[in-house]
User: What shape does this take?
Amino acid sequence: MTFAAMGAVECIVRTQNALGEGIIWCPRRQTLWWVDVLAGKVHEWRQADTLHRTHDLPFRRIGSLALRERGGLLLATEQGLFVWDPETGSTAFAAAPEIGQPTHRLNDGRCDRAGRFWVGSMHDTEFVPDGKLFRVDRDLTVTTMAERIVIPNSIAFSPDDRTFYFADTRQYAIWAFDFDLADGALRNQRVFARYAGPARPDGSCIDTSGCLWNASYAGGQIVRYTPDGRTDRVIDLPVSHPTCCCFGGRDLEILFVTSARFPLSDPSTEPLAGSVLALRPGAQGLPESTFKG
Assistant: This one.
């Protein structure tokens, strides 16, 4: 894949995802993975030959996914966490953080460098503050880390593993916490970045300088924040609802961005809404951590 110029935004997969989300890069397969949350589908894009495949799975909602150290992917769904083998198509139940909550589903998730999976839950149809943030350990033990969340997003970890980032999209804020990689504890919650609306924080990723790149949902931009929370750079996109971003490519120097169509009253006004975009922003990302459970 080539780019016309540094910083030029291009469409690499012209999909019509209702809610494209959770994009991650697999270095082993040199492949992008992402989900269409509302369609319950997993998408795969291979850089070498630009092959794009859509996988239909037996879930109504898939909020996010993670690479698994032992192979396959971990899926966060409305039924809980499942291990999925893309080669055979088989799925196996792993854990259910939201036991007894049929109205809820899992949303944004990401692994830390100790191999744990962090994932948030939310009400599937109402914007109410009864979601939670969970830490799923390697032995599949589930611990509730935060409560009263409307839409959990922006889970990310600083390069030195001392800061944990997390957002509630409907509270228009990204928070930073002191993070202990050894025991997985969170302390000292504070506001990292605040959105004034209608733009609000969605998915994030971190670069080697420790800066956080956030998809500004309903803002049509990617915003880069320095480690002290200052806005460092703003990249305009040809879609109004970017949802998540990740660094990928052989040298982790390409920023990939998912987007959504469903909030648009007339999707024809945004031909690229729901597609995956890419650019070279002049920064390098960090390898995606894997789930070791």
About this structure: The radius of gyration is 17 Å. The chain has one domain: 10-279.
